[in-house]
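At this stage, I wrote out one protein's amino acid sequence and its backbone structure tokens, and that material follows here:
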Amino acid sequence: MASSLLVLATIFVLFSFGKATHPGLILTVVNNCPFTVYPAIQPNAGHPVLERGGFALHTLTHRSFPAPTAHWSGRIWARTGCTYSNGRFSCQTGDCGHRIECNGLGGATPVTLAQFSLHHGGHKDLSSYEVSLVDGFNIPMTVTPHEGKGLCPVVGCKANILATCPDKLQYRWPPGQGAVVGCKSGCGALGTDELCCRNHYNSPQRCRANRFTQFFKHACPATFTYAHDSPSLMHDCASPRELKLIFCH
């Protein structure tokens, strides 16, 4: 009996030590922009909504929250130019049905997207992340892993693409003659199957870079710019302690 208790105690100590030295993954969202942004979080199908799907984040503040301990995948973006008037919340970019808490809804394009796949790869506990301009651009964004093992680079887009966005891709608010608040993708601006990698063009062989994706790639090489862009841009980082998403880095 005494020896059994000793074994149980030893297992408990080892288990507690393992938990203490391998804490859960933390997601941190940082707003370095000189204005308030409203981060939005959308899970992929079958995964839970995190932080009710959205919240306000004032300039030079951050918000940290625990990631699910099981596999989770989804995306995060920033909503900009948000106002609340006459009982109605709305954003110039990234709006999710006029809600502060998106609760699983997607956002209106153009937006810069961070995409994540957490806790996959079995015992390797890999977390993958990327920054995508496939749906256009609305704000500079980077993802920085902390204390991970393996291939864990900082990725994203620090350039202010709004300042150089071609006329055909400019998204203005108010529509027409207002300020440029977003830069559409070629798909978002022109909507052809070829630019959207739809139907006949929905394959790695037929979905190719074009003059619009090359504009985004030149400004931000470490981002996805079309649906079948290089898989090497998605990075697998083993057991990071934190993934930090920074707006206006």
Remarks:
- The chain has four helices and 15 strands.
